Amino acid sequence: MKNRFKELGYELKDDEVESVFQSFKAMAEKKKRVTDDDLKALVLGEVSHEKPIWKLGDLVVTCGTKGFSTATIKLVSIDGSTHIACSVGAGPVDSAYKAINLIVKEIVKLLEYSLITVTKGSDAVVTTRVVIQRENNMVSNPILNGNNINPTFSGIGEGVDVIVSSVEAYLTALNKMLRFME
């Protein structure tokens, strides 16, 4: 696998190869054929990340044409403790994001949400991008002569599941925001 990544133009350390390989195995269980584009998306999604403050443990979403969408989510904190919350929303992504906010106890405004497919077919890899902003979080910026700003934070998630990809993108942005606040 390390040689294949090298052929694709990626020089990965052994621990990075292992991390991407675990994601590859999970993808291979869901897809009939994993393409070079899929491998590239996996590398971009797994390599060069700080240790997250929060990461996805489990996710269960219920949605349909009747009633509200619901999400039950388990997040794992940096210290290894698990936290579970449930929420309802206008759709499966909205309910998942609301459940995350209940756990992290932050009021977050979603400014942008976009999806693009990286590969083709019904088992295509999707890339989700979000931009968030903490509500009422004005920060003094010395570069702007002390004027206050409210910074934004972006996140990207990839995968064959749109909801999981959306949650990963949101958690990436949220972790950036929480790191900034430290």
Automatic annotation (TrEMBL):
Q: A single Gene Ontology molecular function, please?
A: 2-isopropylmalate synthase activity
**Entry's Gene Ontology cellular component terms:** chloroplast
The record, for Pfam families, names: LeuA_dimer
EC? 2.3.3.13
Sorted alphabetically, which keywords does the UniProt record give?
Acyltransferase, Transferase
Q: Does the keyword DNA-binding apply?
A: no
A GO biological process held by the record = L-leucine biosynthetic process
Query: Boundaries of each 2-isopropylmalate synthase LeuA allosteric (dimerisation) domain copy?
Result: 33-178
Q: Which domain of life is it from?
A: Eukaryota
Recorded hits in InterPro entries, A to Z, give: 2-IPM_HCS-like, 2-isopropylmalate_synth_dimer, LeuA_allosteric_dom_sf
Q: What class of enzyme is it?
A: transferase
Q: Determine if Membrane is one of this entry's keywords.
A: no
What name is this protein filed under?
A: 2-isopropylmalate synthase
Tell me the organism: Cajanus cajan (Pigeon pea)
Highest classification ranks of the organism: Eukaryota, Viridiplantae, Streptophyta, Embryophyta, Tracheophyta
